[in-house]
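Section 3.1: Structural characterization of target chains.
Under the original work plan, the team committed to producing a structural model for every single-chain target entering the pipeline before any wet-lab resources were allocated. The record below documents one such target. The sequence was received from the expression subgroup and is listed exactly as submitted; it comprises 428 residues.
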Amino acid sequence: MMRNLLCHMDSPTLAPGLGAARRSLLAAVAAIMPLWPDGLPALLVAMLLLMLPWGHAHALRNRPFGAGAWQGPLPWFLMWYLWHVLGMAWSTDIGHGLFDLEVKLIFVVLPFMVLWSPEAWERHRAMVLRVFVAATALTLFFLMVRSTVLFVHELQWRATGNFPVGLPYTNIFFSSYFSPWLHPSYLAMYGVFALYVSVLQGGGRGRLEQYVLPIVLVLGVLLCASKTGWLGLLLVLVHVLWSRWKEPRVRRMALLSAAVATLVLAVLVASFGTVRVKFTDTWHALTATNTTGEDSSSSRVLVWRSAMELIAAQPLAGTGTGDVKNELVRVYGQRGYLYPLERRLNAHSQFLQTAVALGVPAMLLLLASLLVPLVRALRRRHHLMTALLLLSLLNWSVESMLEVQAGVVFFAFFAALLTPPRPSSAPA
């Protein structure tokens, strides 16, 4: 009966419907990633079910693990996940450890999705990337409109003398006030990657994709007020101009994006203390010998110090998968770091977070999981995979992005989408 069922599911009448469903789910994941992150788990479960090799289980024998689907970063992250499972052996906080394994479980599931159905990821890659660009631009545009509406309302309140007392009312345009449902650092990373895709692949289909979408993405990233997002914009410019300088369309879009970003950032810094303080806080955190940790920059210095102390104490095995947060909080308390202690901050660096939890060898594995595929992508001129890996190196240096769904799903999904590279067409 089971054999008959599988044969029926692989029948010619069902195959087009299954292909359409896979296409729709891949597009849906890309669309709601910036728009509605809470809806991702259900979509990922549905995608797993539809990616199963219905009627083609025998074909897995003909797909060696050295094939194209396994030449990207995903196999490395499967090993990294298994190391987290091993780290449960010396953890005392089992509850937090299980939660951590649940957050990172996609690193086990997605490699097999690619192995089972590589043609689905390959066939729909360009469409899914375009959906992600449109969804990210739409999200940022909506947030700009929302902030403008709230700003007008607050102007009206101020005119009547009835306005809230607290932060400057212009804060509604920046940072977490601008991005209320997704951490601004993550939204900025989405925006920078979408800009990469827009510049490298989005031209030639009308003025909307050639000019409007890149400008919306640049403005949105700037308003997220994420310093790594701003550095990401610079990374886009350098990487795109280096790799595609001879292509007039790409060069024109990159230079236009750079000009808009420079002009808008200069205006924001000159006009708004909320933005200007991003630079002064960073400088203070880098130069001060004793920071208070009352802003994002100086608090990072404090948590990095705490993380380094724990790494020095347990360099090989780490504290264990489940105990990393408790151990960091303990050090905050001992050192009197009130800001990180009250907020129970993680290490604010994925590399340090991994070293604290599982030791320096696990951190080296995490670095290799980016650097080895990066070298391969650079050699083969796979520009979007290069962009994903460079952005990950940048953002993971100052954020523990693989500790939350927004960071894990973004990286794993696009790592799966961009590997294996298309063997019969120009690299993207």
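Residues 125-160 form the longest helix (36 residues).
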